[in-house]
């Protein structure tokens, strides 16, 4: 959720569901340095370095990629964000930044659930008709989102890293 939206005092969402989110959008060399998953899965796993660099250059031309509107990981304060469910993939260059963001959310007092699907790649949500693991991940996250929306007590956030099917 945008910090600008919070400042504008618009009604915040009840919760947020983030599938393999790009929360740290710095240039690829920084990502390779800071996150092992970026080094391991940056080529051949669906979200390749070349594509990432292409998208960043076109979507954010000349902008500071560490700005909080582009990379929410670098927001000064995230404590006011709604309960958050992050669904990450094991074979994803974004995996470690997703883990770090979930940790930061928790440390800021945001109710956070992190689900990591170790056998899946970035973009698995688009593979639900092809692979049973992707379908199971989509089903599980949809059910948990429903619980969050209804306000039901969900499993303890601390018990959700990593998750396998």
UniProtKB/TrEMBL annotation:
Residues 5-125 form the Alpha/beta hydrolase fold-3 domain. PANTHER family: HORMONE-SENSITIVE LIPASE, TRIACYLGLYCEROL LIPASE. One of its GO terms (cellular component) is cytosol. GO terms for biological process: triglyceride catabolic process. It comes from the Bacteria. It comes from Pseudoxanthomonas broegbernensis. This is Alpha/beta hydrolase fold-3 domain-containing protein. InterPro entries: AB_hydrolase_3 (IPR013094), AB_hydrolase_fold (IPR029058). Pfam families: Abhydrolase_3. One of its GO terms (molecular function) is sterol ester esterase activity.
